[in-house]
């Protein structure tokens, strides 16, 4: 397969101009090619876009970008009908529909953490631990931006959501348990571009649901408060989305470099997605100690309906990489696996020149090890050793961030909630065996 020359991206600068279209597109650096945005709710999505937006609108103003993820947003096990229970003791106007999709995970990127926490404490004082309430917004902000992976989590928060009117013209009030994390928008962008922690960047390697932040009418017909100014929202959301495109291309490139070397390279897209899903767990002590579900990666990719979500995320990146001659996207009708029947990637990973081009798409901190990752020759041993180097460097990023963020949770969430959260994780991991 012939490979055209790919221009070398500038990694230490953040370019805000999107890739141009048409013939000019092939002259753009790979790291700035566009990536498809996931479409409407799929079979795998169990929390609707409307629910997620209703949750975010209950928080303080100043959110630049928000997304939902995890097992409360996407089904990560075989399909089972959601059970809706109606409180018959209430009047129609007070009807409460309770569903249990699991705890919904949401990340809020805010422009000014101190200002945001001040307002959020006024609205949701009970979301904060005793120590956080005692320390106040300044203490909370310092914990957020100076420790761990620069995210402040609130787990096990119960919310009542007013959903759109039913046919009986009465609002539906549904109960949701959520965990929300708060991050500075600039810190989110930094992690997406440079993989400083591979914490939120790793979460955004996987399918997510970008949450609409524009003002909408509430269930009672009143206008909900805008949670951000239009100029700020469009400006910062655009920067996050461009950084995310770079993040996704880095994920594809790293995952291709981690594939086992063979003389004939034909990689099912599902195999690539499994590798991508594993990047942010490389060296994570929670996987090693049984504090995470050992089947988590498999569920993230192979649960019915999820492979389509992965395709939504990565299709355009792969097509653009094909246009630049780095790989070919081909049909895979011969595969016995149902999940693999759509597409495969044909790429000559044995060629040193191909591996060099892939390394150029990694964050700068990984490019510093490019000679060892690429290898000295085109032997299987050299390529395998390069993959081991890359995996170790990924672990050097993930391991300290995962440990420090977990320790930070005992302060931000409080001992009680942290212990409850840890037990829930162990129940999915070691205790489930």
UniProtKB/TrEMBL annotation:
GO terms for molecular function: phosphatidate cytidylyltransferase activity. One of its GO terms (biological process) is phospholipid biosynthetic process. Belongs to the TAM41 family. Keywords: Lipid biosynthesis, Lipid metabolism, Magnesium, Membrane, Mitochondrion, Mitochondrion inner membrane, Nucleotidyltransferase, Phospholipid biosynthesis, Phospholipid metabolism, Transferase. It is a peripheral membrane protein. This is Phosphatidate cytidylyltransferase, mitochondrial. Its EC number is 2.7.7.41. Its cofactor is Mg(2+).
């Amino acid at each position: 397969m012939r490979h055209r020359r790919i221009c070398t991206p500038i990694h230490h600068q953040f370019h805000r101009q999107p890739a141009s279209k048409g013939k000019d597109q092939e002259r753009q650096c790979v790291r700035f090619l566009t990536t498809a945005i996931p479409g409407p709710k799929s079979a795998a999505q169990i929390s609707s876009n409307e629910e997620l937006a209703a949750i975010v609108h209950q928080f303080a103003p100043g959110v630049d970008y928000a997304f939902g993820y995890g097992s409360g947003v996407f089904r990560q096990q075989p399909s089972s009908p959601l059970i809706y229970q109606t409180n018959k003791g209430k009047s129609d106007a007070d009807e409460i529909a309770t569903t249990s999709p699991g705890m919904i995970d949401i990340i809020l990127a805010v422009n000014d953490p101190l200002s945001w926490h001040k307002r959020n404490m006024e609205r949701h004082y009970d979301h904060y631990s005793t120590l956080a309430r005692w320390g106040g917004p300044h203490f909370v902000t310092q914990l957020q931006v100076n420790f761990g992976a620069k995210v402040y989590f609130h787990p096990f928060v119960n919310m009542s959501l007013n959903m759109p009117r039913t046919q009986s013209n009465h609002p539906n009030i549904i109960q949701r348990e959520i965990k929300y994390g708060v991050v500075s928008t600039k810190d989110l962008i930094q992690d997406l571009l440079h993989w400083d922690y591979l914490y939120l960047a790793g979460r955004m390697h996987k399918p997510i649901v970008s949450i609409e932040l524009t003002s909408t009418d509430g269930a009672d017909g009143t206008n909900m408060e805008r949670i951000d100014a239009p100029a700020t929202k469009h400006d910062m959301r655009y920067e996050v989305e461009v950084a995310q495109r770079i993040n996704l291309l880095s994920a594809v490139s790293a995952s291709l470099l981690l594939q086992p070397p063979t003389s004939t390279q034909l990689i099912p897209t599902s195999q690539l997605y499994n590798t991508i899903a594993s990047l942010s767990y490389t060296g994570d002590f929670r996987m090693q100690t049984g504090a995470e579900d050992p089947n988590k990666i498999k569920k993230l990719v192979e649960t019915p309906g999820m492979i389509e979500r992965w395709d939504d995320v990565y299709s355009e990146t792969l097509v653009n990489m094909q246009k630049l001659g780095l790989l070919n996207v081909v049909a895979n009708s011969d595969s016995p696996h149902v999940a693999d029947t759509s597409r495969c990637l044909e790429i000559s990973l044995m060629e040193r020149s191909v591996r060099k081009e892939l390394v150029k798409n990694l964050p700068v901190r990984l490019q510093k090890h490019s000679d060892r990752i690429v290898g000295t020759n085109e032997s299987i041993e050299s390529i395998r050793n390069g993959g081991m180097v890359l995996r170790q460097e990924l672990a050097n990023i993930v391991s300290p961030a995962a440990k420090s963020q977990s320790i930070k949770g005992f302060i931000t969430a409080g001992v009680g909630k942290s212990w409850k959260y840890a037990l829930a994780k162990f129940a999915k991991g070691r205790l489930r065996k």
